[in-house]
Design brief:
Elements: H1 6-52, H2 63-70, H3 80-114, H4 119-127, H5 134-149, H6 161-181, H7 185-194, H8 199-210, H9 212-228, H10 231-235, H11 241-251, H12 253-289
Helix pairs in contact: 1-12, 2-12, 3-6, 3-9, 3-11, 6-9, 7-8, 9-12, 11-12
Length: about 290
Amino acid sequence: MTQLAPSDRARPRRRGLVERARRRQQAFRVTVLTLTTVALLVPLVSLFEFSIRFPLTGEVSFDAWQRVFAGNTGEYSTLDVLWSGLTNSLIMCVLTVAIMLVLLVPTMVWVRLKVPAMDRAVEFICLLPLTIPAVVLVVGLAPIYRFLASTPLGSNTVWLAFAYVVLVLPFAYRSIDAGLRSIDLKTLTEAARSFGASWPVIIVRVILPNIRTALISASFVTIAVVLGEFTVARFLARDNLQTALFQINLSDGQIAAVMSLLALGVTTILLIALDLLAGRRKRTTRKARS
């Protein structure tokens, strides 16, 4: 009878240890995911219950939902306040994302290629808004917006996008910085320049496609910040989604709860759609290359 070598006898034992470790990791992932899901769903379920249960009597009614979709909210005969705030917030999302990308991407590319010694200074400037409370920012922004109100730009709420660019700089910088670090920026630009490409062409057709994921992440964070911002808009007496919800909440808390859930749902669907679109484009690009 042949005897197994020590290495052959140890192989099943190692396989068993690896399998048990894999099961423990799987159980840990499921536990963490379950706890995270519960922590996220409990406030949403509570908010939904508040929107359908009358606080004094405990009676369950979908009257608030019916009034929202019918356009009648009691004291507010229509949802003009909400639609106006939502429209302003969506326009500011587009403006803020556009200004942020136009400002950050060329600047970061130029600094990394031409003056890498300034990289730390640019990072410090971009991260500085994290250390300044929004209330303090409003004190500095108020004179600027008072001046803008006297110009042809006027006092339109959408110009809050300029202030929101400052608020999103730290988060957008980190996302774009991670994307630029993941590619060989110098080699790509030198190769493109050797083929006669101009700098705008290099940025649009060479760099941006290679950091698409980072740009989408920065855009996600920007949209989330703009849709959830309240302090700056409130202190500067501008109307956005959050100030509209605040005004409606003063007269009907259930209506505000309904609109908060709808706004959260629409925002989530928007972000998922953008993520799916980015993933589809990435798969299409990989198939084209293969």
